[in-house]
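Hey,

Quick one before I head out. I ran the complex with pyridoxal-5'-phosphate overnight. Inputs first:
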Amino acid sequence: MPGFELIGVEERAAVNELFDDGGILYRYGFANERNERYRVLEFERAFAGYMGVEHALAVTSGTAALKVGLRALGVGPGDEVITQAFTFVATVEAIADVGAKPVVVNIDDTLNMDPVQLESAITEGTRAIIPVHMLGVAAEMDAVMEVANRYGVPVLEDTCEGLGALWNGKKLGTHGAASAFSFDFGKVITTGEGGMLTTNDEEIDKLAREYHDHGHENDPSVPRGRDGRRIFGFNYRMNEIQAAIGLAQLEKLDFIVETNRRHYRVLEAGLRDLPGLRFRRIPEACTPLCDALVFELPSEEAAGAFAQRMAEQGIGVKNLPDAMTWHFAGDWDHIFRHFGMSDAELRRVTRSSRERLSRCIAVPIMVKYTPEEVEEIVHTLREIATEVSEPISQR
Ligand SMILES: Cc1ncc(COP(=O)(O)O)c(C=O)c1O
């Protein structure tokens, strides 16, 4: 699953080397003291290269990447931004934090944004759409992009959980106007905390760069202290230690993704024939990240019993069902009430997503599993399925 499993000698060496080069931890300046090395810049270039995009801006978190991206798209108070009911709370927080109204649409059987519901949520006030590639799988992105393009609304992809996955053979996170990534401790590569905003649009990148750095225009012809500004910003700058670690982790990304996919294939093949267990639909155009295997049971009770038995057997779950309350917008009246939506209304509009998500189990896939461990998990999950199948069939 995440890069934290593989934090090791390479990351340690990268940090030691940073200190050997003068130990300058700030992304700008100090050219003489730092041996001309700028790790944040190097990480941005390497990440842009990996993604095949023009620009990558390193920031302090995935949440910051979303917020910086929204600001760069010109989203602000009075605007509406559409996202999906299944996401981490950060997506909705970022929308609310720029002063825009979050609008959530329900998910379909991909567990991501339903493109039909997306279209019906668009209004005159819609300024951005954020599809979220939850647990490494894309929404029906062609349909999402078709709706967005038809209404002329920019798409900011939330690829915080999707780095390494593909859509139509092209990296997920390269299909909208911009994309946000997270390197927090649970992600496929990690810098402890950290994030990246990518785009092919020069003006989006420029605005994002300025906003994430107090509005600094970073004009190379003047000293930083005399730099100009056209917008007000904030501080979401990544530091050099994070970037040094990020560079080492990025080297491991292909290996992590390949290993995930190998484990995933074994798990899926081993569970496919189980009655009462339906896999999450993965759109045909999507090559998933495969850091989790998600299936749906016939009822919430069955899913609860299944997860309980998994915990007893020492197998964890990822977000579903244990942390659903942090990943389901229908529970976030503490945010939506600021935008005039009552708790009852929020529950009503997100009901179908709640019903679907509460029947789901997400099994995390760890990079370091041995083939024997993967077989053992298949065996245990099959046993659990047999045990809970009786209560399921008695329903
Ligand atoms: C879908 C999604 N969006 C945004 C974020 C926020 O990223 P971060 O934790 O780096 O702020 C996360 C992190 O869990 C996430 O899963």
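Residues 61-63, 87-88, 90-91, 132, 158, 160-161, 182, 184, 195 surround pyridoxal-5'-phosphate (CB under 6 Å).

Talk tomorrow,
K.
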